[in-house]
């Protein structure tokens, strides 16, 4: 019974997570009912069916006088001390001045002292799109699809908005024939992403659209930048392309462009490029501390974007490094980033906390494909309770310091927080 949070979320339309005192609450265990009304206890007088004291016609003065005169009215007796099971050892009280369990002893107290909240408003929903009409399931990510940009995507966005998730980030599956060494399709104003942004903005003007800025979906090499013949990923030339990509996305209506490429200096360059084109209102969410992680495996399958050779270790960070995240954060902040992102999420909670404590900017965490797939797989095999682990993992990312979370669970978690079960 060591539930750390109570599985009650907001009702539809409410933008916070908390208790709804007006109706019984269901604990995580699924067993205990909690009635937040003050307990009405035991006997008072015969005839008071519900145990409450019937009203008399005495004035306040009469009541006080009666008590002063020693005619103290009856109230229920204090409840008896609950019995311990036979065989429980009898021990002297531990001399503790502090017993932290006191603040955890009832659902109401636990709710009162809960430090972190989780709301659909914190979620950004990553969505995979493709040119096709059908939604194609992604094998390594149960429940995720490459969505048809015209139909499946629009329906998925509608479902998310229904439960309070109004932010999405788009990842395109680009036809091989459009990929090239320099990834020029990335800034085709009529390419899949800009076209999709225009469609979504037409339908849902208030939807917050984040975009991915990186060349990998468009690169015939599967790298985030331009690859020189000796295998080196060219930094400044790539940044030039990324600026064009970000401007093209902004022109289509993107709200937040998110460079995930880890080239040096791209935040400042993109800021300058956006401003020069009149997009000073468009935000930059920088993938500040993006690690060269094996947790991206299912994502690369989803987009068919595995690097054709080598790995991404010359631009993505070494998972062994902590201080280096501060260097990246300092640069991004001074170059004008609006949001700093840490990726992956759960294995890097210390880095999320580091950035939270060293920057005043909003912090984003990306619960990446591998994290999602592990929870899904564990749930499918009945090794863990998928829903509870999902909610706990998201709560923990918030507790570590993330303001927003990019998560493939966005819709499922929001439904769960809204009390909708499927
Ligand atoms: C690439 C990109 C990746 C992800 C988001 N953008 C993969 C990579 O760096 O190879 C991974 C997201 C995930 O695993 O969920 N620009």
Automatic annotation (TrEMBL):
SMART domains membership: ALAD
E.C. code: 4.2.1.24
Keywords: Allosteric enzyme, Chlorophyll biosynthesis, Chloroplast, Heme biosynthesis, Lyase, Magnesium, Metal-binding, Plastid, Porphyrin biosynthesis, Transit peptide
Names of the cofactor(s): Mg(2+)
Comp. bias intervals (Pro residues): 74-83
SUPFAM superfamilies cross-referenced by the UniProt entry: Aldolase (SSF51569)
Protein location: Plastid, Chloroplast
GO CC terms of this entry: chloroplast; cytosol
Keyword field contains Lyase: yes
GO BP term (any one): chlorophyll biosynthetic process
Highest rank taxon of the organism: Eukaryota
Keyword presence, Lyase: yes
InterPro entries in the record: ALAD (IPR001731), ALAD_AS (IPR030656), Aldolase_TIM (IPR013785)
CDD domains: ALAD_PBGS_aspartate_rich
Biased composition (Low complexity): 84-97
Stretches for region Disordered: 27-53, 72-106
Family membership: Belongs to the ALAD family.
Function: Catalyzes an early step in the biosynthesis of tetrapyrroles. Binds two molecules of 5-aminolevulinate per subunit, each at a distinct site, and catalyzes their condensation to form porphobilinogen.
Assembly behavior: Homooctamer.
Designated name of the protein: Delta-aminolevulinic acid dehydratase
């Amino acid at each position: 019974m060591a539930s750390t949070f109570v599985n009650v979320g907001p009702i539809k339309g409410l933008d916070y997570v908390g208790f709804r005192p007006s109706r019984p609450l269901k604990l995580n265990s699924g067993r205990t009912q909690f009635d937040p009304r003050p307990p009405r206890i035991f006997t008072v007088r015969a005839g008071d069916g519900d145990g409450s004291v019937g009203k008399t016609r005495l004035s306040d003065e009469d009541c006080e006088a009666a008590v002063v005169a020693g005619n103290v009215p009856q109230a229920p007796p204090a409840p008896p001390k609950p019995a311990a099971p036979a065989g429980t050892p009898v021990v002297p009280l531990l001399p503790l001045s502090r017993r932290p369990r006191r603040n955890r002893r009832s659902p109401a107290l636990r709710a009162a002292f809960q430090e972190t909240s989780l709301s659909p408003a914190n979620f950004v929903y990553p969505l995979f799109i493709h040119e096709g009409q059908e939604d194609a399931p992604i094998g390594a990510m149960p429940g995720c699809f490459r969505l048809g940009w015209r139909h499946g995507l629009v329906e998925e966005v509608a479902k998310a908005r229904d439960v309070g998730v109004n932010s999405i980030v788009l990842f395109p599956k680009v036809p091989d024939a459009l990929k090239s060494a320099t990834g020029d399709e990335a800034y085709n104003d009529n390419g899949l992403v800009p076209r999709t942004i225009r469609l979504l903005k037409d339908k849902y003007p208030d939807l917050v659209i984040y975009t991915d800025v990186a060349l990998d979906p468009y690169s015939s090499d599967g790298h985030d930048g331009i690859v020189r013949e000796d295998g080196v990923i060219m930094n400044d030339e790539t940044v030039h392309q990324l600026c064009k990509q970000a401007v093209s996305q902004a022109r289509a209506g993107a709200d937040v462009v998110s460079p995930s490429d880890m080239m040096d200096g791209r935040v400042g360059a993109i800021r300058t490029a956006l401003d020069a084109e009149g997009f000073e209102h468009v935000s930059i969410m920088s993938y500040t501390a993006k690690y060269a992680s094996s947790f991206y495996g299912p994502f690369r399958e989803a987009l068919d974007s595995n690097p054709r050779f080598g790995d991404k270790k010359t631009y993505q960070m070494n998972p062994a490094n902590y201080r280096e995240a501060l260097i990246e954060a300092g640069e991004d902040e001074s170059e004008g980033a609006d949001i700093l992102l840490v990726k992956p999420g759960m294995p890097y909670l210390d880095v999320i906390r580091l950035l939270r404590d060293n920057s005043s900017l909003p912090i984003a965490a990306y619960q990446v494909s591998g994290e999602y797939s592990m929870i899904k797989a564990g749930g499918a095999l009945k090794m863990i309770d998928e829903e509870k682990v999902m909610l706990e993992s998201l709560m923990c990312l918030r507790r570590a310091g993330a303001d927003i979370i990019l998560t493939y669970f966005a819709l499922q978690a929001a439904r769960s927080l809204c009390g909708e079960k499927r």
